[in-house]
Amino acid sequence: MALHITTDQSIMASADIQNLLRFLTGPAKIPLRDALAKAKPLLADGLSSPESIAKASLDKLRKTFPDEKLAKQVLSAAKRTTNASSSPSKKKRSAADASSSNPNNPSASTTSPSKRRRPNTSAPVIDTANPQTWESGLDLPPPNRDTDLISATIITINRAPLLLAFAVVSLEYTHPWLPRSSRFSLAQGLLDATAASKAKYIGITRENDSGNDALEEGYKRIRVLGKEIPVLRRWDVELIDPETSTHADDDVGSHESAGMNPAGTASDNSASAAIAPAIASAAPATAPSGSSTSGTAATLSATATVTAASEPIYWALSPKLLAQPPVASKLNPSALPIHLPHAAHSYLTRSFPDATLPLLLGALHIVYASWADSLDPAELDRRGWGWYARVRPAVDDGPEGWGGRGAVKLKDVLGLRKAGS
């Protein structure tokens, strides 16, 4: 829904959206990503502040929040905020709400969405004694490489899931030894880092809102689509020697995720520096699913097998969870401060209609496979952000456009492939 406003109205709308987002992600406890999608419909209904929301009927709120429980949650938060700001006896509570209004505040942004969304009944229970359980439930549909069908397809989507798809496929070519769980974690780390940077740039968060930056200091960083992501080294799987093991599944190590220090080395005496992912749980020792030629397949296979013996694997570190460590759960039994892979997988798969995700993945694999034999991994990764920026949906500038949806022509994605491929 586009907002057509004059310059003076634009200034007012920007301020309204910023205040509204601070309320939604703070007192109303809605994750930033969801709040961005709800801000414009609320403004269109004249609900631009906690005061106006508090006076609205539940039925009116349900136009934007179809889930009645969530609508009641927002309405109650608006009434609390309004009462607190108007009552001197509740100043302390009002200050507490204001301090929690930062979208980067862990108490606001890490609220579990399970109360507002249907639970993912297919999510596995992670067993720290069996690292293979991290890979369960992370399958993606097979890429559809029908170029005629791809070229005829237009997807209406917002930018975040498109960036997530770019990152997941890119990592399959630039870091083929990584298991799917690490690729999804790193892709989510890129998504959150990009969102935080953008929020600061357009004024949704303030400079002094991001107190997590200092917590990242000292941690290793790796580049994903050219952006540096803080990481935590994994020590939960043992090295499989491809020359001596033909059944990698039988030899997966049973190390728990050990304590780690910021330098990325083990903080205990577990294993040696040669620990790396099991070949079976990494991107397969065969070529990535997007490979289109036997030459590329052989190159990627050799790279995955040889590099896996010397390259470490990582989780993407979550600065928010460094500030407020998570509690143990079935998807994170060791309570690691990381971006969980299954959350990223769920977001990607539910953001696209079933028929379109295979086509997008097919287009991306065609593009990356066309360049894989002529660019080294670092250059392939660096170009990825530019490719994404060329095809991402066009949205309004400033807060009004963030979270907006737009058209992505998959023929434009195919246009990124190497000429003559």
TrEMBL record:
<feature type="region of interest" description="Disordered">
    <location>
        <begin position="244"/>
        <end position="269"/>
    </location>
</feature>
<feature type="compositionally biased region" description="Basic and acidic residues">
    <location>
        <begin position="244"/>
        <end position="254"/>
    </location>
</feature>
<feature type="compositionally biased region" description="Low complexity">
    <location>
        <begin position="96"/>
        <end position="113"/>
    </location>
</feature>
<protein>
    <submittedName>
        <fullName>Uncharacterized protein</fullName>
    </submittedName>
</protein>
<feature type="region of interest" description="Disordered">
    <location>
        <begin position="76"/>
        <end position="143"/>
    </location>
</feature>
